[in-house]
Write a structure and sequence with these properties.
Layout: E1 6-7, E2 25-26, E3 47-54, E4 59-72, E5 81-88, E6 93-101, E7 104-109, E8 112-118, E9 126-131, E10 134-148, E11 151-165, E12 170-179, E13 183-193, E14 198-208
Parallel strand pairs: 1-10
Antiparallel strand pairs: 2-4, 3-14, 4-5, 5-6, 6-7, 7-8, 9-10, 10-11, 11-12, 12-13, 13-14
């Protein structure tokens, strides 16, 4: 776990939350998305810029993340919408889909819900799911201040997620500093096994929110 009052400066960043686009149908412009809590920014026009580095691939990039649109999600009922988050890398673009259901933030990758968060956060909070072949657990580990190139923040939650898969064996570890009303300001991702090997870090450089 990182030290308290952690200061993160400089550095390039990750491939990170690599997301795959899914089949979907655009909603009518007159149909607004479900209201999202300001706690987790999710308004069309919200944007973040990250420095990304992969220490294994010895690669770096600057990634622009923008909430661009709303869609009907194929795994949701017709009355539900998800926002589209575009990840603009220097040589390609990926998409992520975010939906709110009560206190749960669902983050979709491909046709399945990949990550989900229970908000608001509090230290000691845990959630997850498991079966005989898979385990996926998340814990809110700490609350502290943090400084990154994108700003200094007095309230940041350190969140650790661990995902294990058996047959074929794979593991994914993600550590995130999340600032309420701002978003993720620092992310470290490690993968080993069938999903490939990478060690990526995202650091927030700047952001702009449609408040």
């Amino acid at each position: 776990m990182p030290s308290m009052s952690r200061v993160l400066k400089g550095g390039l960043l990750l491939t990170g939350l690599v997301f795959v686009a899914i089949s979907c149908h655009k909603s009518s412009p007159a149909e607004p998305p479900s209201k999202s809590p300001e706690y987790f920014p999710n308004a069309i026009g919200d944007r973040w810029k990250y420095a990304l580095t992969d220490s294994i691939a010895r690669a770096s990039d600057t990634v622009q993340v923008i909430v661009t649109d709303t869609v009907h999600r194929i795994l949701l009922s017709d009355s539900e919408f998800a926002t589209v988050w575009r990840y603009n890398y220097h040589d390609h673009t990926d998409s992520q889909y975010v939906n709110f259901h009560n206190d749960t933030v669902n983050i979709f990758s491909g046709n399945w819900s990949d990550t989900y968060l229970i908000i608001p956060f509090h230290v000691g909070q845990k959630w997850g799911r498991s079966d005989p072949l898979n385990e996926d657990s998340t814990e809110v580990v700490a609350l502290d201040s943090i400084t990154v190139p994108g700003g200094s923040f007095k309230t940041a939650y350190f969140i650790r997620r661990r995902k294990l898969q058996q047959g074929p064996v794979a593991e994914w570890d993600t550590e995130t500093w999340f600032v309420p009303t701002v978003g993720s300001v620092w992310i470290h991702q490690h993968s080993a096994g069938i999903g490939g090997f990478f060690d990526r870090t995202w650091v927030l450089l700047s952001y702009g929110l449609m408040k």
